[in-house]
Amino acid sequence: MRASERAISDINRELADLARRNGDAENELRVLGSAAAQLEAAIDEQQIAFGKLLAQRYRQGHAPLLRLLLSGEDPNRVARQLHYYGYIARAQAGLLEELRSNLERQQDLESKAAQARADLAKIERSRVTHKQQLEKEHLTRRQALALISKEVDAQRREIGDLQRDEARLAELLERIEKIIASRPKAPPPRRDQERGQRPPRHEIDAFGQFKGKLNLPVQGELAHRFGSPRPGGGTVWKGLFIQADSGQGVQAIAPGRVVFADWLRGFGNLMIVDHGENYMSLYGNNETLYKQVGEAVARGERLAAVGNSGGNTSSGLYFEMRHRGKPFDPMGWLNSK
Questions:
Q1: Helix (H) or strand (E) holding 255
Q2: 300 in helix, strand or coil?
Q3: For residues 292 and 304, is the Cβ–Cβ distance under 8 A?
Q4: Most exposed of 131, 188, 222, 224 (fewest Cβ within 10 Å)?
Q5: 172 plus 77 within the same structural domain
Q6: For 254-299, what is each residue's pLDDT tens digit?
Q7: Rg (CA), the chain
């Protein structure tokens, strides 16, 4: 099940990227189509103008200049006629050059449009392949769930399993805290800051300022609260379980940096975000993880998609907040409005 749930997360991420590329290609094709339509209209106008010039030259005969010079008419009138014929000739040459240039541009646009259509077809083939792979992984996962459903139900009644899951998470958080603590400390304030100047933004965005202002990371039904008994008794919930539809977006509660994004037994596809000052937020049971370790995230940015990984029978998000590795009730930090 671990491999299939990881694969589902990876395929969904690739499908999201394909959707973005498909949108870019469709937009490019629309732009090319609009440019081609404008160019075709310009070519039509040039062809009509060029046809009129040719018709006028034909009516004048094959040697209008010679007849004019030998006509014996008034020299001033002859000079005006010669100037007019020169203008016609230059206009004809100009139109011909513009028509040739526009026809070349039309051929180039048709070539680019053909390439854009080929790219769209390639993206669609890739999307179909990924969809088939996703359905296959979902089937594999459903089969795995069917095989272990009785075992999972029995395990959830046993206090020992829950305690082991929590112990694994505690060990993971301890390792993460040691890694964070080993990082170089921030440099001391500069002289201009010591003189009272405003420090950089990231130095004043302390996590404590968000108390009472946070939003839940996903909209849904609050099925289990912090401190309520877990099934089977003997242990309590260390966070919140929010029932939500599979695929619904999970958002970061505050700015931070991803320090863990992987599968963990009991928590499925789990993401942990470090907010500084020894505060962390945890998002478990996801179907898809969109961020990777080391990536900075903004408040409200999409981190993952709701799922039921980790053996859950219903879809939803398991959400914890911790300070110095200890869980605390997130409800006291949420916006009451």
A1: none
A2: coil
A3: no
A4: 188
A5: no
A6: 999 999 999 999 899 999 999 999 999 999 999 999 999 999 999 9
A7: 35
Sequence-distant contacts of 125-132: CB under 8 A, at least 24 apart: 126/18, 127/15, 127/18, 127/19, 127/22, 130/11, 130/14, 130/15, 130/18, 131/15
Q: Output 85 or 203, whichever has higher pLDDT.
A: 85
Tell me which residue range forms the domain holding 67.
2-154
What the block records as the tokens of 164 is 């082991």
**Residue position matching structure tokens 């962390």:** 280
**CATH number of the CATH domain containing 254:** 2.70.70.10
Closest residue by Cα to residue 174 from 303, 260, 240, 253:
260
Residues 37 and 69 in one domain: yes
Read off the DSSP letter of residue 51. Answer: H
Tokens of 104: 């070349």
For 58, the token pair is: 């034909």
Total number of domains constituting the chain:
2
The position carrying tokens 């996801």 is: 286
Task: Show the tokens assigned to 233.
Answer: 């008794």
